[in-house]
Amino acid sequence: MFIDSHCHIDFPDLASHEAELLAAMAEARVTHALCVSVNLADFPRVLAVAERHANIFASVGVHPDYEDVEEPSVEQLVQLAAHPRVVAIGETGLDYFRLTGDLEWQRERFRVHIRAAIASGKPLIIHTRSAAEDTLRIMQEEGAERIGGVMHCFTESQAVADAAIAMGFYISFSGIVTFRNAEALRQVARQIPLDRILIETDSPYLAPVPFRGKSNQPAYVPYVASMIADVRGISQQAVGEASSASFFRLFSGAIPADREKAA
Q: What is the pLDDT of residues 189-242, one digit of tens each?
């Protein structure tokens, strides 16, 4: 009923109790999750999680916060994305909050990921923080609308959401939408089309209320759905069903676990 469209369950603090995490997911009716890559060195462990479990998918990419790591090439990303368990390129994007100075390397890395996504035919997972103007500009310059994707852990304005949606992107909400000081974000969640919404945990980070301050996990994504349901005046089930349908529409390479087992 629910899908965690962005998590990092390969990170050591979650991977150490993988079986418990998956059991909690099942109990919470979280049917699938996308384990997202943050650098090339750790990509093999991301892929290994997806290879072990039919209901977990993988992405490949290098997060904009990671300095002094191996820079991917378009060709390398395309090659790694050819694996059938890899359904997206990213996470990629711009982050001017944590890093300062000359960040042209970050912008060039972002361009490489967009080009790889277009070449591979797999959608983008975009991270943007304190960099919305440049993020949208580079998306437009590189033709990101040709492949689409998701603006993950969205915290920007309605105008930024509208611009991304106009380029064929989805908007993904995390536990932040449940935070007391996130009223402006809740208004965005209320206004954008339901069929453009994804939900995520970004675990182990950003646990939703009532778990704020604790380690996050995919089993908590229904709390994100509940808050979106509340602000829209619809049921949690409606949000879960719509966001799950959107997940498989966007990540077309992701085969539902029950269908894969049947095959």
A: 999 999 999 999 999 999 999 999 999 999 999 999 999 999 999 999 999 999
Which two structure tokens, joined as six digits, stand for 108?
């060039």
Q: Quote the CA–CA distance of 122 and 116 in Å, as a whole number.
A: 8
DSSP secondary structure string for all residues of the chain: -EEEEEE-TTSHHHHTTHHHHHHHHHHTTEEEEEEPP--STTHHHHHHHHHH-TTEEEEE---TT--SSPPPPHHHHHHHHTSTTEEEEEEEEEETTT--S--HHHHHHHHHHHHHHHHHT--EEEEEES-HHHHHHHHHHTTGGGT-EEETT--S-HHHHHHHHHTTEEEEE-GGGGSTT-HHHHHHHHHS-GGGEEE---TTS-PPTTSTTSPP-GGGHHHHHHHHHHHHTS-HHHHHHHHHHHHHHHSTT---HHHHHH-
251 with 55: CB under 8 angstroms?
no
Domain residue limits at 69: 2-262
How far is the C-alpha of 184 from the C-alpha of 33, rounded, in Å?
Answer: 27
The number of folded domains in the chain is 1
- At 243, which CATH number? 3.20.20.140
Which pTM was predicted?
0.96
Contact by Cβ (8 Å): 135, 167: no
The Cβ of residue 27 has, within 10 Å, a number of other Cβ atoms equal to: 9
Question: Residue 220 is encoded by which pair of tokens?
Answer: 């908590």
